[in-house]
Amino acid sequence: MNQLKVYNSYSRQKEVFKSITPGHIGMYVCGPTVSGESHLGHARPYVTFDVIYRYLMHLGYKVRYVRNITDAGHFEEEGREAVDKISTKAILEKLEPMELVQKYTNLFHWAMEQFNTLPPTIEPTATGHIVEQIGMIEQLIEAGYAYVAKGSVYFDVKKYAASHDYGKLSGRVMEDLQETVRELEGQEEKRDTADFALWKNAAPEHIMRWQSPWGVGFPGWHIECSAMATKYLGAQFDIHGGGMDLLFPHHESEIAQSTICNHISPVRYWIHNNMITINGKKMGKSYNNVIKLTELFIGDHPMLEKAFHPMVVRFFILQTQYRSTLDFSNDALLAAEKGLKRLWEAHEKLGVMSYELGDAETGIRDEELESRITKLISEFDDFMNDDFNTAKVLANLFELVPVINSMKDKTIPVSALSKETFELLQKQMKLYVEDILGLKSVNEADHSKLKGVMDLLIDIRKEAKSKKDFATSDKIRNKLTQLGINLKDEKDGDMSWTIE
RNA sequence: GGUCCUGUGGCCGAGUGGCUAGGCUCAGCUCUGCAAAAGCUGCUACAGCGGUUCGAAUCCGCUCGGGACCUCCA
Question: What angle do CA A339, A340, A343 make, to 5 degrees?
Fold first, then answer.
């Protein structure tokens, strides 16, 4: 089997993956800011890294997966108004900040469950790690890379850049940075425009506030990830993930802070997912073009013709390699919905099939088909090892679909395959569809009682059909269709049904 | 303005210099009491112009278009 290769944003090339501690992987992924509702764009990193997490475990690693909750406020616009965005909304909605944070945290967890993402092994909150953040800032001051100004603390980027390559991750040059940083009020506190805040002095109206050695204030945005990653994953860990838009300044600053405190570059492999676009433009709050997850799930949005199941969204995301942009549209989701249905139904059919050599012939092995199937299956791992190419995995899965359907319809006898190949097919299909890609049925309803009723109706309809009483048989099927249950006649005279 | 990415058939998208990814749509056929599903077949694309090469969607240059980051952002 070939080795896992991942595209490292830091080196801008695919590298062979090797974990620091054999058998173990530490992975940190930037989590949500729970000051508002998650939208479709947020779904991408969480689904992407969920599949990565699942695949790494499949490879046999023990993974510590840390994903933070940013529940301590950051300034809406730095310097302009020293008002934390969480507290602003809290006033508007007449809520306690922590109540608001709790509400959106719960909503986020609910959405993640809908997407069938596995929970991270540690989900630390920024508010729960103020002490660690303050400790880290003190270290930075002591080391001479941070300075205090009017109750705030800033990181001295220029000093850092003199001896480290600040800007390497995001491809930025110090001189450009100093020129291009736009004019902001309150910049005079900083020694240099490129410096970033570690701790901000809190204005009186700022609700989220903590006592610190520099007065009452709140932590800067970048320090929480450095502090929590260090605490749970150590000075250097394997993977750090997040959206591409976090490359600068967030991750660049994280590297700087952690490098000074821990005397080592914090991350071995930086993995960044690309954006979801809408009409070619990034979906984001600044563009005012977001589709919230709740809107997506209930179909309440001008761009949506109907509601889409979370699994459709998950499938939609996985059809694209994570480093490419993914363009959202109603049509694209409709296509994903149909595709997923076909894939899932084939997967279910295969699951209940068994390798029975028909009464007919057993020696009609189809060598060509067999080797094609073996090849398609063996490529799953190859594709995942090549920077987690779920798009290619899905393509292969779809190539298997007609084969499975044909076996079900008996146009291809099971005996065309050896027992080993057939069972391998069953095993790998289940492994990939369910365990690694993390797909599940879009009908989560409990069918146990309904199944009994359906069996009865099918029985009656079969009887009617055998008597050529098509009026009755059509009535049963048509009424069920009206109820949203599709009944279909199978080739072997059996009937099956699906819920819309 | 700076840095970087990108342009694939009706739509979404994969793509290692040579071997028509895949999904959806559309058309035809097969199966079928009808329907649905399924199966088979067809629609053979790589923004434009040059260059490198025996050979380029893939490498290089230019032109045109789209986008990201530089500010909170997944």
Answer: 90
Give every strand in the sheet of A196-201, ordered side by side.
A146-149, A152-155, A196-201, A215-219, A210-212
How many angstroms is C1' of B40 away from CA of A351? 25
Give yes or no: residues A84 and A202 share one domain. yes
ipTM of the complex: 0.95
Q: Which of A218, A241, A273 is the last residue of a domain?
A: A273
Domain count across chain A = 3
Q: Are residues A51 and A170 in the same domain?
A: yes
- Residue A436 CA distance to nucleotide B2 C1' (Å): 41
A409, A436, A463 - which closes a domain = A436
Query: What is each CA distance from A148 to A152, A156, A163, A220, in whole angstroms?
Result: 6, 10, 21, 13
Residues A44 and A96 reside in one and the same domain:
yes
The structure's pTM equals 0.92
Which nt is closest to the CA of A390, judged by C1'?
Answer: B14
Residue A142 pLDDT = 96
Question: Stated in angstroms, how far is A281 CA from B37 C1'?
Answer: 38
Distance in Å from B36's C1' to A477's CA comes to 10
Nucleotide with smallest C1' distance to residue A486 CA: B36
Do the Cβ atoms of A262 and A230 come closer than 8 Å? yes
> Which residues does A163 contact at the CB level (< 8 Å), separation at least 6?
none
Distance, in Å, from the CA atom of A9 to the CA atom of A247, rounded to the nearest integer, reads 9
Low-confidence ranges of chain A (pLDDT < 50): 75-83, 183-185
Nucleotides of B under 7 A from a protein CB: 1-5, 11-15, 21-25, 31-40, 66-74
Q: List the one residue out of A36, A47, A201 whose CA is nearest residue A117.
A: A47
Q: Provide the token pair at A167.
A: 């800007």
pLDDT value for A191: 87
Q: Which residue has the tokens 């490129």?
A: A194
Q: Residue A342 is part of which domain span? A: 293-436
Which nucleotide lies nearest residue A289, CA to C1'?
B73
